[in-house]
Amino acid sequence: MADLPPPPDIVRSAFAELVVTDLAEARRWWVDLLGFVVTAQDATALYLRGYDELTHHNLVLRSGPAAALGALAFRVRSADDLARAEAFYGALGCRTERVPAGVTRGIGEQVRAEDPLGFTVSFFASAEHPQRLQQRYDLRRGAEVARLDHFNICVPDVPLAYAHYSSLGFGLSETIEDGQTLYAAWMYRKQTVHDVAFTGGAGPRLHHLGFFAHEPHSVLRMCDILGSTGEYQYIERGPGRHGVSNAFYVYLRDPDGHRMEVYTSDYYTGDPDHPVLRWSVLDPRRRDFWGHAVVPSWYSEASPVLDLDGKVVPTSQIEQVAESTVRVGADGFTIAPGE
Ligand code: 4SX
Ligand code: FE2
């Protein structure tokens, strides 16, 4: 990878496009229950944002025949970075395409690429600014989501994903590893724990979209709301405290099975000498600081991804030791006494 041209200057993970099979049901779940703000809607798509987001959207829900991830979109610093993205992915032998301004509502011209990991990624420099709702406390509902924070993707080869995002200029904040295997890694461009993280598993698949909320209360309230409506089956994991990132979290599944996380309380990573935090795969606190077991579905289930033509990308099986098969202590979940 030594001869690659300079990568685009990525500012942050900005929005994702999900294909949903029933737009009305998706609106009920994402808007009525979770409280996302509707920036725009047409017959086939819904454009949503959190209350702090100052650009057009964090999430596009598009209706289609089967649930899938359409694209992961990153904001870049300037229009020149679009050409850089094109040259960068072109040099990797990846297919790219220019998408004219406005094709995705509220967004300027995009460069889209089928990346070496099999995901469709999008880069854009300009976006419309809708009404600022940060202090419209009167409007807040549901989980009071503030903004998109990160993409978590399933990849069969975590070191390969790490190398690819390193070449794009991402910094490493935390890992889960042992002497032989890198099981998971968290990487950032903005000054938080991550914009993208890798979960070892069949891939390419979308593991989850992570959304930031300001208060632990929002995480708990979302669980109470889903209890009240009898839709507790959508609560998949948590609430709990992550070891990695220190976030207070809950994972929910939408009616199409897309996984999302509402969390609060991660930390600043912007110093140039920011130290990497490496967790042993044998530490039961790594994924839940209280040592609670991770439910099996969280490791095994994820959303398929689409290529530039909208076709499902075939997945490859995991190529490394699966974290979910690593057993810690006698009962498989807790660390052995004295360790
Ligand atoms: O499960 S982990 O504690 O490793 C974790 C998962 C930490 C931060 C996240 O955003 C996440 O999704
Ligand atoms: Fe996450």
Task: Lay out the secondary structure.
Layout: E1 10-20, H1 23-33, E2 37-41, E3 45-49, E4 59-63, E5 68-76, H2 80-91, E6 96-99, E7 110-114, E8 120-124, E9 145-155, H3 158-167, E10 171-177, E11 182-188, E12 196-200, E13 205-213, H4 216-228, E14 235-241, E15 248-253, E16 259-264, E17 277-280, H5 296-300, E18 303-304
Shape category = globular
Identify the CATH architecture of the largest domain. Roll
Number of domains: 2
CATH superfamily of the largest domain: 2,3-Dihydroxybiphenyl 1,2-Dioxygenase, domain 1
Listing every helix as H and every strand as E from the N terminus to the C terminus, the arrangement reads EHEEEEHEEEEHEEEEHEEEEHE
Strand count, sense and closure of the main sheet? 10 strands, mixed
Would you count the extended β strands for me? 18
Q: Structural class of the helices, strands and pairings?
A: alpha+beta
Question: How helix-rich are the residues, as a percent range?
Answer: 10-25%
Would you state the CATH class of the largest domain? Alpha Beta
Q: List segments where confidence is low: pLDDT < 50 over at least 5 consecutive residues.
A: 332-339
Give me the Rg, rounded: 19 Å
Distance between the termini: 40 Å
| CATH topology (level 3) name of the largest domain | 2,3-Dihydroxybiphenyl 1,2-Dioxygenase, domain 1
Number of helices: 5
